[in-house]
Amino acid sequence: MPPTTIPQVPPSAIPAEANPGIHETIVSLRGVSKVYGSGDTQVVALDSVDVDFARGRFTAIMGPSGSGKSTMLHVLAGLDTATGGSILIEGDDITGLLDNDLTRVRRDRIGFVFQSFNLVPTLDAKANVLLPMKLAGRAPDRAWFDQVVEALGLSGRLTHRPSELSGGQQQRVAVARALVMRPAVIVADEPTGNLDSHSSGEVLSLLRSAVDQLGQTVIMVTHDQISAATADRVLVVRDGRIVADLDHPDVDSLAAVSR
Question: Is residue 6 part of a domain?
Fold first, then answer.
């Protein structure tokens, strides 16, 4: 996939209401471990990980298959439980929450974007975007909805059903659905994995725009160096540990640490 050129918007150009407290810590992992099995079959997926993620930044997590990168994402997003350590979202420890409380955290404070778009085929794009708010019994903020839809280029597609949209457009709807809830953080697990190179470039551009134009925080898992180079920061994971923490790396730098 060819590199995607994405315009950079300086922090001063981001509306203050969309980006309060830019670069404050939004997610923290402290001594987080995840162990599967026991005895001879024990697998340490995460090994006492300490890391902070800042508000208003795009962080990519990459590493080989089995490195622990997806486990890290799932644990910090409350999709899986840690064996040890603590996970804080906006200063609140989610590690020991009961299922109902954890469900509310995932619904209200975390936006999810996956390889599978998870759109309801019988609903149009607008209804799919607003579905989480409807399920939560919350009225949408019309101004914010319009801003998200315009930023992601969906204004002319709101009445289309998923079958009438391209793969890239469907992923745009999925990202808009995550954004409209105003989550503390968006987590994206291989969001371009099911897309062609053109659509992949579109999705990376819109995740970049979500950070630059809407002040969102994005944490993305990817195996692709070009995709990772879209981010502000790249964590390289191997054997359940962070082995490199790179600021605005280029593809060559990522290739060197991935060998």
Answer: no
Q: Which residue, 190, 188, 119, is CA-closest to 157?
A: 119
Residue 14 lies in a domain: no
Total number of domains constituting the chain: 1
* Selection from 87, 81, 98 nearest residue 52 by Cα: 87
Q: Which domain holds residue 226?
A: 23-258
Q: Assess if residue 7 is contained within a domain.
A: no
- Residue 12 domain flag: no
pLDDT digits (tens, 9 = 90+) for 181-237: 889 999 999 888 777 787 788 888 888 988 988 889 999 999 889 899 999 999 999
Distance (Å, whole) CA 182 – CA 173 = 15
Tens digit of each residue's pLDDT (9 = 90 or more) over 130-176: 998 888 888 888 988 998 888 788 889 999 999 999 888 888 898 88
Output the pTM of the full model: 0.83
Give me the helix-helix angle, 99-109 and 125-136, nearest 10°: 140
pLDDT, tens digit, 9 for 90 and up, residues 211-227 = 988 889 999 999 889 89
CATH at residue 251: 3.40.50.300
